[in-house]
Write a structure and sequence with these properties.
single chain; 139 residues; alpha/beta; 5-stranded mixed sheet; globular
Amino acid sequence: MKNTYYWLSVLVALLFSINLNAAQVVVVNPSNNTTVNKNEISRIFLGKLKAFPGGGSVVPVNQKSGSAGKVEFDQKVVGKSASQIKAYWSKLMFSGKGKPPKELNNDNAIKSFIANEPNAIGYIDEANIDSSVKVILKL
């Protein structure tokens, strides 16, 4: 029995380490040939940049609030905590100056949205990349 607990704890630790090492990537539609840097991506997700630098409107999509992916993206790219993001968008919505990007439930929903919207930009777990999206930044 003691040996079973040992192997179970090793398995759990391995699963957590795999998940923690998974990287988020910023993705766009494969037909989108624009290049954007981290600062521009931050400005897109804060509603400050409404078009890609090369032209064409931009449609950002977020992961669901509270998800690990959104928390990581907000910290690494936008440079804000979840509560700072919420306060930021509350202020803009109250003043009528903007609304936050649409939120989707998971990586598959984001990939599907981006595959059908040439001007979309979002972020997913690197392990879920396929031909329906193109990576433009690895976090």
